[in-house]
């Protein structure tokens, strides 16, 4: 892959390509060249040079997203390279910036922003070893704790204690790194490197630990909160969270599966839901809301109507929405602003076809991502879907896995998809005619892989040929049977698996004990 580089950048690459030479001559480099040298070092994975550049950083701020993003000197965006060598060198360089008393540069650094790093599936770095969000959280917390211990034991320059650098980071906390992160947050006031949590994700945590750590993060700064796997947060806990903690800057909220279940609602629960809606209404920045796998039948209006600002992203997949919910969404002020929408797990053609197309028409001018997995979309519905999607000229991503569509219908649909100018990513189902006759939808996990793989490959080739003939090589078409790539799950899947096995074992033991008592 060739990218445009200026003569300045080519010179910077030449300078840093000899690590020993570059490190020896760093003192003679002009301040304004440090960002250029940093990106060149990152591109060439020169860990030692990266470390020394950060250790001697002469500027007021250090913003990873801006430093690695596309620039006039080098158009390639490196912010999605989570190269372990580069990131570890960067963070240890930051620690040594505080400790280095002989640096020729005056210490001006006030803000380090690590939030611009993007975790993606395919890495282009040579070492092929990534440092994901969880590992970055782990390493920064460890370095902060080690730094404090060192400062307390060693004879340091008094000026070292006056250094105060805000380190903006997206924290990812699980049971495994919980204690380390808590210690770093508790000692934030004493540490020259001050962790400032901009986004927080928690998996595999008890509620007690979640409530404790979320208060330590300084929720007034939080812009994104994700409570995802194995945090057993139910509606009453969510009400306590919103009543006890204010999130004035929160823009994005993800709640775990089964937070709400209206099937067992009492009058008290109805009031609780209203209170939660009102509290979300006080979050004037809230633009993204994900509450998949909750049962919200008939309650969407109660939850969303108090919001003062329109939502740009809404995930209500597998939430058992009824016609009243869909009618509210189609007619609400959110409809004209939705850039990302997930309605997976709802029988759209059967339950509310016209209301869904009304919602689609309202958000068509801004919609970028649409997910309709397991929605019972059949061959007879494809023409209507084409009609509904035609105005969605900004659509970049379409996911419709798990729908009973034939290979013929898919070919027809792909011919239309070529006409959507911004489309980049399509996730399509295994054609129905690749499965044995009589297969029922939604397909259970046991039957998911029992299809004619050779026939599927032939159909997939035909669909890619349709894209190719329309000069749409820019569109990636795939069938991820077990869901899209999730960087966080990928990074912590061993811990997640162990947690699930432990939970299953505990459930089995309780069942056995109860059974023995009955016997």
TrEMBL record:
GO terms for cellular component: cytoplasm
InterPro entries listed in its UniProt record: LRR_dom_sf (IPR032675), LRRC14/PRAME (IPR050694)
Residues making up the signal peptide according to the UniProt record: none
Highest taxon listed in the record's lineage: Eukaryota
Keywords: Leucine-rich repeat, Repeat
Gene3D superfamilies xref list: Ribonuclease Inhibitor
Similarity section: Belongs to the PRAME family. LRRC14 subfamily.
Name of this chain's protein: Leucine-rich repeat-containing protein 14B
